[in-house]
Amino acid sequence: MQKAVSYVRVSSKEQHEQGYSPDAQKRLLYEFARSNGFNIVEEFEDAETAKQTGRTAFTAILAYVREHGIKHILVEKTDRLHRNFVDYVKVEDLIKECDVTVYLVKEGTSLGRNAKSSDKFMHGIRTLMAKNFIDNLSEETRKGMDEKVAHGEYPSKAPLGYLNVQDPITKKNIVAVDHKNRALIEAMFTLYGTGNHSLQSLIDELECKELTGNLPNGRKLNKTTTDHILRNPFYIGHFQWNKEIHKGAHEAIIDSDTWQRVQDVLNGKREKQNYPAQHNVIPFPFKGVFTCGECQRSITAEIKKGKYIYYRCTKYQTDCTQQAVKQEMILEEAEEKILTPLSTISDNGIAYVVEALKQSLEEKRGWHNTAYEAMLAEKTRLKNRLDRMYEDRLDEKVTEEFYETKRKEYTDRLTELDTKIAKHDRADINYHDFGLRILELAKNAKNLMKIATPQEQQELLKFLLSNSTLKDGKPDFSLKKPFLQIAKRSPLGERSAWGD
Ligand SMILES: [Zn+2]
After folding, report:
1. How far is the CA of 277 from the centre of ligand 1 (A)?
2. How far, in Å, from the CA of 306 to the mean position of ligand 1?
3. Which residues are found with C-beta within 5 Å of the ion, ligand 1?
4. CATH number for region 162-272
5. For the whole prediction, is pTM greater than 0.85?
6. Does domain 2-111 fall into CATH 3.40.50.1390?
7. Which of 82, 217, 332, 399: disulfide with 88, CB 3.0–4.6 Å?
8. What b/e readout covers 284-301, taking b as 16+ CB neighbours within 10 angstroms?
């Protein structure tokens, strides 16, 4: 009988489902062990709680296997073993370094040293990771700086109906509803949404109803401020910052249906008054994603009948024959052709990606170390030379002028080296994070798309896609390289559009 260990994990979600116990997993593994000649010498079990994400048994099993020379790990299925790509890398290391085989009992497969690999694919991933990393570094930096905003913290003065206050517990600056003016804001949106008001008649009615008595500093409403309030997505829980819409942490006062109705009324009024149609405050998910498949002009978005979003060719100086396409059609295609394949990447697919990523990191680290060591060596060399030259100067073997020129040359180069060395350290860390994030993003793309704001949807699509076209009512999506490679590994992707 060969020695084996088993690993069981119960997620926090499962613990909330009634009648669930880890025994079912244990029984399955025990049966498998018995019929395949394994002797389970140790059982490991993790039960996650929402608060505690650390998995002690997972860490313990990795150590135990190494220490006791165990060659077989039994687990129900892949996602019991690793919840994220960092875990995956750890398991991969174990397989490679200790010649361990992991049996995914329910899936009827195993992971071992001899798993097949595709060099072409790995090469593709390695290349793109390197390039993408550079492309995205500046983006990542910007994101870090806007972290507050990303967490929904509004970094500016709250609009009418809200107050900037300090959270009594966390002592953080937050935005709270101003209850003295809540009724005013609600009435503004409800009344204007009926379409029976001009801005002036709205203000008159609000004053008549004595709702305007609590305006800060005794100010009065005028048409400009009223228009501004009615267009502000802050009241539905979003806010605008750096020309982008973010999901705020503050409470919404207005529901999004009412808010949208008000936007329609505002935009309708504008058309009648012969103003150029204003762009909707909420951006369109696919805007900027496509060019026209017939005439290569850009594709723009518009709202028809107040609620349907259409995408159409701008037809700038062409006699393009393309018709406008409804957003639902494009969304459906996007789901089928890109989001589902990305989200359903197989465990094998992930294994390829992770392997490629790891190799790429090792290569980079190898290069990194060589370059790093070369710089350290040069630093030592320069310092020694400086010392020697100083002695030469003392012995008057060199002139004052020669000494000064050389000294400046060497110290300049030393400063340059120090900067480069510091930069290197940072780059290495970011590179690793970025690769893992790409994989997480791919796997979650479909869900992200469902919960994202239109602004976030647009960002996500632009991140995933390049050079996509729209023609005869059909989008032709072109995934960026890393995602194309990932989609190709998906069981759906292999069958459909992304196959070789
Ligand atoms: Zn066109």
Report:
1. 21
2. 24
3. 292, 294-295, 297, 313, 320, 322
4. 3.90.1750.20
5. no
6. yes
7. 82
8. bbbbebbbbbbbebebbb
